[in-house]
Amino acid sequence: MELTHFNDDLLSFLHTSPTPFHATATMKKHLLAQGFVELIESEEWVIDEGGQYFVTRNDSSLIAFTVPQLNLNQLGWRMMGAHTDSPCLKLKPNAQVDRFGFHQLGVEVYGGALLHTWLDRDLSIAGRITLKTQGGEIVSRLVDFVDPIAVIPNLAIHLNRQANEGFSVNPQEEILPILCGVENEFDLHELLKSQLKKQYPALAVDSVLDFELSLYDTQPAALVGLHKEYICSARLDNLLSCFVGLKALLDSKEQRPSLLVCTDHEEIGSLSACGANGPFLEDVLRRLTPNPEQYVQAMQRSMLVSADNAHALHPNYAHKHDKLHAPAINKGAVIKVNANQRYATNSETASIYRDIAAQENYEVQCFVVRSDMACGSTIGPITSGEIGVPTIDIGLPTFGMHSIRELAGSHDAYGLYKVLVRFTQRGDLISRV
C-alpha cells in the first residue's frame, strides 16, 4: 500500500468515526470485508487454525486477531494496542436547556478537552441510542446527524477585554451549544426519534429510552501545509493509532498469531468493562489459551506495541520540551519512556522495536517529559500490569493534543504501519540464552 492510498483511507476512517461507537463499527466493516469472523462473547467459541476473528464489547471496544497456528504457548502473540475514545462534549441525560430565547444542550466534558477550541465550530451530534420498538424489544442503534446543527459562539472581545491575556471556559455555564431559537418547537427525544426513522426506515420506534451522544466538529480531516506535509483532524488521538494497527493486522502475512486491541475510556482512566483497565483483553486471551500454564507461557513469548500520540516539539513553545527528547513531525514514531512507569517501555522492548524499524529504514525518536513537568500515561502500563506482557509505548508526533483539531505528519503513520506489519511477522523476540 503506497502513501497516497494509505492517507486517503485514513481520512475516510476519521470521517466515518465521530465517536468510539462509530470507530468500532468502521473497523468491524473493514474486518468483515477481509473475511474476519465475528465472535459473540455470550456464545461458545470454536477457533480454527488459520482463522481470523474479532469480537466487540459495548459497541465501543474491539479485539481482532489471527491464528495461523494454534500452539499459542509456543509462538506467543504480536499485539498492537490503541484506544477509540477522544476528549469531547457529551450530552447530559436531561440535556434540553431553554434559556434567554435559545434552545441549548447541557453537556458534560469527557476527558481532558481543550475547551476553548470548541468555540465557534460547526458541530454535529453522533453516538448510540437505546430504544424500545413497537414490538416491545429493547435495541441500540448508532446515529450521526452529519449536518452542523449546533454551535458554541465565543464572547466578543469587547465584552472580555482580557481575553488575550488568559482565557478560561466555565464548563457548566459557558460551553452549552445553541441549537435554535425558542420560536421553534424543540423536543430532544422527538428529534432523536426522527433521526432514528431517517437512518433506519424499517425500525418501528416506540420510544427513546436512553442515549450516549457526543458533539463533534463537522470539518473533515484534511492534508494541509504548503506541501501537504501534515494531516489535520479531530480525534487523531487516538484514531490515528487505531487505523495504523488495523491496517497492519489486515496486511500481516499471518506468520505469527497477531492481535489488535482498541479499547474505550482511555481518556478517563480506562477503568470500565470495555477499557484497558478492565477484563476484556484477558477474557479473550484466556478463552484462546485456557490452560493456566500455557497462558503464562504465551504471554512471556508475546509483546505489545501500545500506540498513542506523542507530543511533537512545537516551535512556538520549545521550552516545554527536554531539548534532547523533542520529537519532530514526519521524522518517525516516538519511543515513550518514563522512569516512574507512566509508560511501559523498557530497554528490551525498545531494542526490539528499534531493530524492526531499522529493517524498514524507518527513523526512531524518543520522548521523555521534562523532569519538572507531570507525565501523561497510556494503555501500555495498564495492559502490561493486567496480563504481564512485555510492552513498549510508542506514538506519532502530534501538535495540539486534545484540541478539537489536532495536527500530525502525513508521512509518519504510513511508516509506522510498515514497521507494525514487520512486527506481526517477527519470530523470536529476544534471546534468553
UniProtKB/TrEMBL annotation:
<protein>
    <recommendedName>
        <fullName>M18 family aminopeptidase</fullName>
        <ecNumber>3.4.11.-</ecNumber>
    </recommendedName>
</protein>
<keyword id="KW-0862">Zinc</keyword>
<dbReference type="InterPro" id="IPR001948">
    <property type="entry name" value="Peptidase_M18"/>
</dbReference>
<dbReference type="Pfam" id="PF02127">
    <property type="entry name" value="Peptidase_M18"/>
</dbReference>
<keyword id="KW-0479">Metal-binding</keyword>
<dbReference type="InterPro" id="IPR023358">
    <property type="entry name" value="Peptidase_M18_dom2"/>
</dbReference>
<dbReference type="GO" id="GO:0004177">
    <property type="term" value="F:aminopeptidase activity"/>
</dbReference>
<keyword id="KW-0482">Metalloprotease</keyword>
<comment type="similarity">
    <text>Belongs to the peptidase M18 family.</text>
</comment>
<keyword id="KW-0031">Aminopeptidase</keyword>
<keyword id="KW-0645">Protease</keyword>
<keyword id="KW-0378">Hydrolase</keyword>
